[in-house]
Amino acid sequence: INSKSPHLSSSAKLTHAALCLECLVRVRCVMGSLMGMEWYCFATLGVLTAFLSFLMDLSVAKLLRAHQWLYSQLEGHCLLQFLCWTLYPVSLSALSTSFSQSICPFSAGSGVPEVRTILSGVDMPHYLSLTNLFAKYVGLICTLAAGSTVFLGKVGPFVHLSTMVGAYLNQLCTVLRGEKEERTEGAMLVVAAAVGVASCFGAPISGVLFSVEVMSSHFALKDYCPCFFAAACGALTFHLLSMWSGEQETLQALFQTSFSDDLPFYPLEIPVFAILGLLCGAGSCIYLFCHRWILLFIKTNKILIKVLSTEKALYSAMVVFLLASVTFPLSAGQYMASKLTIKQLLSSLLDSRQWTSQSHNASMVLQPNLCPWSEWISSGNPYLTLGFFLFMKLWMLVLACTLPLPAGYFMPVFIYGAAIGRLFGEGLAYVSLNVVYLDQNRNPINPGGYALAGAAAFSGAVTHTLSPALLALELTGQSTHAAPILLATLVANALARSGQRPSFYDALSISKKLPHLPSLLKVCPRLSSVPIGKVLGPRGPVLERAAGPTEVQQVLNTCSQTQIPVVDTLGDLSLLLGVLKLTRCHILFLNMTYHYFIFQVLKKQLVDMCSIQPVSVQLSPDTTVQEVRSLRRHSLVICVGVWCQYKASLRLSWTCVSFICQ
Amino acid sequence: INSKSPHLSSSAKLTHAALCLECLVRVRCVMGSLMGMEWYCFATLGVLTAFLSFLMDLSVAKLLRAHQWLYSQLEGHCLLQFLCWTLYPVSLSALSTSFSQSICPFSAGSGVPEVRTILSGVDMPHYLSLTNLFAKYVGLICTLAAGSTVFLGKVGPFVHLSTMVGAYLNQLCTVLRGEKEERTEGAMLVVAAAVGVASCFGAPISGVLFSVEVMSSHFALKDYCPCFFAAACGALTFHLLSMWSGEQETLQALFQTSFSDDLPFYPLEIPVFAILGLLCGAGSCIYLFCHRWILLFIKTNKILIKVLSTEKALYSAMVVFLLASVTFPLSAGQYMASKLTIKQLLSSLLDSRQWTSQSHNASMVLQPNLCPWSEWISSGNPYLTLGFFLFMKLWMLVLACTLPLPAGYFMPVFIYGAAIGRLFGEGLAYVSLNVVYLDQNRNPINPGGYALAGAAAFSGAVTHTLSPALLALELTGQSTHAAPILLATLVANALARSGQRPSFYDALSISKKLPHLPSLLKVCPRLSSVPIGKVLGPRGPVLERAAGPTEVQQVLNTCSQTQIPVVDTLGDLSLLLGVLKLTRCHILFLNMTYHYFIFQVLKKQLVDMCSIQPVSVQLSPDTTVQEVRSLRRHSLVICVGVWCQYKASLRLSWTCVSFICQ
């Protein structure tokens, strides 16, 4: 029988469907006997995300090469070159903005603050839809293809993309298991966040740690193994794909460095690394202050509010045109190595050879393959170039953060830190050779090590995390510098976290008014000692034990909740007996009972008619926010006296919180 | 005035005391303004533990060298050599046993199960005393000095030692801050556990991760920074001390390897690493089965019970004599490289050069510095030596675990895994060269990489953790093999965790009858769905709202608790009003009131006389163990209906649990 025949009888169709179903069930049994269904989902999640990441890298590389080719073809025509340099990123970022905004307005920005909020238990279904996945993916390719002019990264959006893939896979997994409840959604999203970072860089361990640090305030160890499993799958797939595409001969770090192994640094350099950490911490404070200022500015400036609410693409185009004009290689761009792509910037900064001692060797400079930092020294003095780069990129980066398009902010910060470290390291190497006259036979000071430490310390301080230290090691495969890098990151973090300043993501959460409690607590520590009774919204309907049919009917008519608290007497609301769980048919039945047997039931009480389920965990309205926070996410429904019912996390109404914070 | 003068007047003494106090306060102010007092404690903890670790390594190295010297001096006298070989470890382990048992019997064993239990909220003050610290430290030096004959490590005891130092520092910190409450004890102990591992190996990151994985089922992110800070301090101090003592020229990994960087492994080797992971997982299952069997055997065999209860030192001496006789280099020991110390064993196994291809080169074998594995091939066939080593060490290791002396079990397991990996890798290298005839110009297969992966996978599977993968990288400074090592560890863990088998530490916890819930849940998953009402002990006294003085008096006379639950009516115990907090003087006052004003108060009710404090978190007896577990450790006092009150963790009475588990 030709199964595609339109004349197929309905019974045959049914047989086919049953056969398919049977096959599916059998496959599920065989797979399920090997390991739980969710592990296949975790593996699929890792592989899919890595595939998305690889595909994005490939398309971005092609788009960047097209721009470089066009620019080089126009050599000699200064105006045409300027137009090519500026209009290419302008059109790409305008496209990115309009595309993502028209398909799904939630796809703009990094996505990390939203994912954090979702992971803390708040439902935000729009942020996990498939249209958002599509809009964010295409938009991000355009943003990245705009290159080092716009200077934005892909980590944050990839965490978001991976979470969307995870949510979708979780639905699939639930269907495959034939269950109705979505058992593992929490675990799946935590794992997805880890996979996002891991498959961005092929760095599984730091991926997991970064997501743990950024995403949660508490980490359940039962998610630990799934996280590492999925992250390892993602990282392996990412590496294998780049190997098969011919980029790498074997699995190796993305920015493989070759620092000297026998004496990577002198022990006396350890305090110097701590000083670099302090510098990076101070730098991060300045950067975060500027970032907070501009977030406030675009919220309060009337012109900007108007432009950003109606003409988002125009705003993007204008800002990117400004950025591109500044970085034009024939004007100021030559003093800030603007011809290098983001990847080239990082690998040139991490090179172990000293720039200054090589800058006189003209033959090497002509071969960019041997000497990736030639762009930095082409204008003469690398110190000035680095300083100018740091000064210009600070405001350019802050400005770029306001663009309403899908973009990540981690990688730019990482590179900025590497530039700080490089400047510091180059200066130190110069001083050690030309002022202190170190023994020439011994290993010279390696400025690349300082660049690596600076990158980890600065990005760690900006995001208030320590895992960039490990990420720096995994990205470069350079384990010799583990101790000084960790030290610098710790010192920078200590400085950045002092004085209750919010981190980069906290500032975004607060600016976007997301109900994310840890961010709020950072800005307003007083909140932790406030009783929840004062913060939560008004209480819903309550029934008393002895409620008659009339009261029950009234409550049923007014409320839309599925659970109603039942108390002993309405006089003392703290004596909670349990909850009355209502299903749709339950309500109908109650209504019918009421209408038809009104005389019979009139004297019956609530306790006689319905079973009241006890509440497993009960809070009093006097419990402070801090105490409620210390209850775990995945605990069951909690009743706060009879004030309000909520699932898992504490959802504060924003007005209340603002009231307390004032 | 000479301050030491015995004739000093009391007023002058007072002035001195006041001056000292003022100085102390001023120092505290200056230090406190820079960072919180607890951070100094964390740093001190790291430095102190690293110092202890370094001192131990130094003494152990000296003791081992003395033994080697003595043994080499007796060359030619076979019997004397045998006596030297056996009696030295026998006397050391007998000394270790009798010393630790006589000073503090709690100091025997690894200490990790006890620290886990303490961290989960159970008070075990004997395990954190200073005498225990002393007994464990000295005992551990003796154990380690017995060398590779006894084949025990130092990680576990160091976690315990570090926790004791941490608890002591916490008391000091509390006094310095002038507070009465020990605010940070929980945090301090968590940090101390991380520092223990970090300062053992100078591996800060994996130290923190290992302690997180082994110690807790949930990790609070606020402990994350302190953990890394203290671990970094510890690791840095450890490295600096070994540098200043002349062991290392600069900071480098403890077992620095030099694998080839350009092509560390072929991509096709990745599935082979997964197969090695499977092998290690299977091996770990056998090892854990033997371990559980011997734990049960020494608990049930009547002779052993008698010997172990009275003659612990004799038992140790007998077992170690057996082990030493077997490893005597002139008998079976020559086939298991028994002359190598534990450190030499590991570095020889991790060497990147292939043993078999070098074994014909006699000149290298004569120079043990160039060729650390010469002991392995001295008997001829390295495969047979490795196989014999694996077979013998399995039962020897299981037997050594029963010794009642301070000892760690992680390092032996790590080395055992390295031997499995080495045998696998050597076999593969032989096959690839002599059977498949790989291109001779390309890099040969590196058996050291397999040894490293095997070590991580086997120790990870035995302890049910993933962090040994990171530890292997940090111990060797070898980041090229990150992906395959993580893969092997994941596969081994998947096999070891399947089928609800307890990990090594879980088995110890259960055998020692420690109230550690996660271990219990692993053995008896049914426990998680049991209502706590069934598991907890009988309920204490309860007062009702309208209780008169007589009832109050009765309850006060019978109970020793400081908090008494107050319910609405005794008829329904689930309607909890709050708790009555009693202090000593409160009780006295109530008693007095009762005796003197008996007529006046006779008609008064409890609610009129005392303030009843509401309970912030309330559980019903129907709440399952799983739900209670999901409430966090540091939450406040929780009342389970009126069944029982407990602080923080769930303390189950053992009889109840055994009842459920049957």
UniProtKB/TrEMBL annotation, chains A, B:
<dbReference type="GO" id="GO:0005886">
    <property type="term" value="C:plasma membrane"/>
</dbReference>
<dbReference type="Pfam" id="PF00654">
    <property type="entry name" value="Voltage_CLC"/>
</dbReference>
<feature type="transmembrane region" description="Helical">
    <location>
        <begin position="224"/>
        <end position="244"/>
    </location>
</feature>
<feature type="transmembrane region" description="Helical">
    <location>
        <begin position="134"/>
        <end position="153"/>
    </location>
</feature>
<feature type="transmembrane region" description="Helical">
    <location>
        <begin position="37"/>
        <end position="55"/>
    </location>
</feature>
<protein>
    <submittedName>
        <fullName>Chloride channel K</fullName>
    </submittedName>
</protein>
<keyword id="KW-0813">Transport</keyword>
<keyword id="KW-0407">Ion channel</keyword>
<dbReference type="InterPro" id="IPR046342">
    <property type="entry name" value="CBS_dom_sf"/>
</dbReference>
<dbReference type="InterPro" id="IPR050970">
    <property type="entry name" value="Cl_channel_volt-gated"/>
</dbReference>
<keyword id="KW-0869">Chloride channel</keyword>
<keyword id="KW-0812">Transmembrane</keyword>
<keyword id="KW-0129">CBS domain</keyword>
<dbReference type="GO" id="GO:0034707">
    <property type="term" value="C:chloride channel complex"/>
</dbReference>
<dbReference type="GO" id="GO:0005247">
    <property type="term" value="F:voltage-gated chloride channel activity"/>
</dbReference>
<feature type="transmembrane region" description="Helical">
    <location>
        <begin position="314"/>
        <end position="337"/>
    </location>
</feature>
<dbReference type="InterPro" id="IPR014743">
    <property type="entry name" value="Cl-channel_core"/>
</dbReference>
<dbReference type="InterPro" id="IPR001807">
    <property type="entry name" value="ClC"/>
</dbReference>
<keyword id="KW-0406">Ion transport</keyword>
<keyword id="KW-0868">Chloride</keyword>
<feature type="transmembrane region" description="Helical">
    <location>
        <begin position="270"/>
        <end position="294"/>
    </location>
</feature>
<keyword id="KW-0472">Membrane</keyword>
<feature type="transmembrane region" description="Helical">
    <location>
        <begin position="187"/>
        <end position="212"/>
    </location>
</feature>
<keyword id="KW-1133">Transmembrane helix</keyword>
<keyword id="KW-0677">Repeat</keyword>
